[in-house]
């Protein structure tokens, strides 16, 4: 598998594809891309949350190590790569605060409650779904995959996709509608 994963039409600069590649092949190259892209951003985010720079650096590194270890847990249908990674960072920051402070001080701060870890069977189901979605995407034309990728993976509005691909808005909507119809036929129980 390349750094772009098995998902047709995904670009090499797609963090979701890097995570998929790390999950599938333990690709050090994809992990290096993730680290170079996210480590400075996560550190800045943690500093904005009030962490000291040294702690922010340490937690950013720990965040990316968690990404390495738990890449198979990532589900691009539930969250973008950046949302998933920043959630890990936030949870590590919360854990750090709990170690620094008395736990009772954080008891009434619901935004500081870390997300629960998924159960192993949920991970297995998510991997099966990912495989089915990849197979279904493989049945689409390259043009359809491109609009699906831009619309759902990059969360771009139709007008922006139209501008990016230099296509009429109606063509973008038509390709997306046809793609979704094909995906529903194959993945109806997942949608």
**Uncertain parts:** 1-11
Helices and strands: which structural class? mainly alpha
Q: Could you say what the CATH architecture of the largest domain is?
A: Orthogonal Bundle
Can you summarize the main beta sheet? Answer: none
Overall structural domain count:
2
C-alpha geometry = globular
User: Got a strand count?
Assistant: 0
Element-by-element helix/strand order:
HHHHHHHHH
Q: What is the count of helical runs?
A: 9
The CATH homologous superfamily of the largest domain is termed RNA polymerase sigma factor, region 2, helix turn helix motif
Mean pLDDT: 81
Which CATH class of the largest domain? Mainly Alpha
By CATH, the topology of the largest domain is Rna Polymerase Sigma Factor, Chain: A
Gyration radius, to the nearest Å? Answer: 19 Å
In short:
This protein is mainly alpha-helical.
Give a structural overview.
It is a single chain. With 191 residues, this protein is an all-alpha fold. It has 2 domains: 117 residues, Rna Polymerase Sigma Factor, Chain: A; 53 residues, Orthogonal Bundle (Arc Repressor Mutant, subunit A). The protein has 9 helices and no strands. Helix 2 packs across helix 4 and helix 6 crosses helix 9. The protein is globular. It starts with 14 loop residues before the first helix and ends with a helix. The relative contact order is 0.10. The N terminus is likely disordered.
């Amino acid at each position: 598998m390349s750094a772009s994963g098995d998902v047709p039409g995904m670009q090499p600069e797609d963090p979701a594809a890097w995570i998929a590649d790390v999950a599938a092949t333990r690709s050090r190259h994809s992990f290096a891309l993730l680290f170079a892209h996210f480590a400075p951003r996560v550190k800045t985010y943690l500093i904005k949350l009030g962490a000291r720079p040294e702690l922010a650096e340490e937690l950013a590194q720990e965040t990316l190590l968690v990404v390495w270890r738990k890449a198979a847990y990532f589900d691009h249908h539930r969250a973008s790569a950046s949302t998933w990674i920043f959630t890990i960072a936030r949870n590590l920051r919360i854990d750090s605060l709990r170690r620094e402070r008395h736990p009772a001080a954080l008891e009434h701060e619901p935004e500081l409650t870390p997300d629960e870890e998924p159960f192993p069977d949920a991970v297995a189901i998510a991997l099966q779904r990912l495989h089915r979605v990849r197979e279904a995407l493989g049945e689409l034309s390259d043009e359809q995959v491109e609009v699906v990728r831009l619309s759902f993976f990059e969360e771009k509005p139709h007008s922006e996709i139209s501008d990016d691909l230099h296509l009429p808005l109606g063509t973008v909507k038509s390709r997306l509608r046809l793609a979704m119809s094909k995906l529903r036929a194959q993945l109806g129980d997942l949608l």
